[in-house]
Amino acid sequence: MSLHSLLKNTCTIEQSVETSDGKGGVTTHWGPVLTPVRCRIRPLKAEESGQYEKATFRNTFRGYFEDAITETEGQTSLRDLIGRDTETPFRVNFDSRLFEIDGVLDVDEQNRLCVLELHRQQGSWRT
């Protein structure tokens, strides 16, 4: 079975960009860094903390991604792109569902498959 047959979906890797608003403040927006990236995202666990109306939920996922090579970054793997820039947040946009990235792994150490530990952002649930 090929890697492409397992990674049936595509997503966009986005990066946070801050720009001056001209009044001394800063505006943050998200822009695509890599698209399309072949992927497969699977639920891992759901946790609840707090009580009653103050309860918070955190859903954790594991995402499997083709470790795409970006020409704009000078032939850098997805794992290296996300792992080396600790100052700039990245996220995964999968079919308009947004996931924050918690960790990066290169499972086979051959830059073919990148595994990301993910969780859902607050307020990004579909209705």
Description of the structure:
This protein has helices at 3-6, 78-84; strands at residues 9-20, 26-49, 56-66, 69-70, 76-77, 90-94, 97-106, 113-120. It has one domain (3-120): Beta Barrel (Thrombin, subunit H), CATH 2.40.10. The protein is globular. It is built from two helices and eight strands; from the N terminus they run αβββββαβββ. It is mainly beta and 127 residues long. The model is unreliable at 123-127 (pLDDT under 50). The strands form two sheets. Strands 1-2-3-8-7-6 form a six-stranded antiparallel β-barrel. A two-stranded antiparallel sheet has the order 4-5.
Characterize this entry briefly.
The chain is mainly beta and 127 residues long. The chain has helices at residues 3-6, 78-84; strands at 9-20, 26-49, 56-66, 69-70, 76-77, 90-94, 97-106, 113-120.
**How do the strands of the widest beta sheet line up side by side?**
1-2-3-8-7-6
* Number of strand elements: 8
Structural category is: mainly beta
Gyration radius, in Å = 16 Å
Question: In CATH's first tier, which class applies?
Answer: Mainly Beta
The third-level CATH topology is: Thrombin, subunit H
Query: Secondary-structure element order, as H and E?
Result: HEEEEEHEEE
Helix content: under 10%
- Averaged pLDDT, please? 79
Label the CATH architecture. Answer: Beta Barrel
Give a quick account of the main beta sheet: strands, pairing sense, barrel closure.
6 strands, antiparallel, barrel
Count of individual helical segments: 2
State the shape. globular
Strand content: over 45%
Number of domains: 1
Gap from first CA to last CA:
36 Å
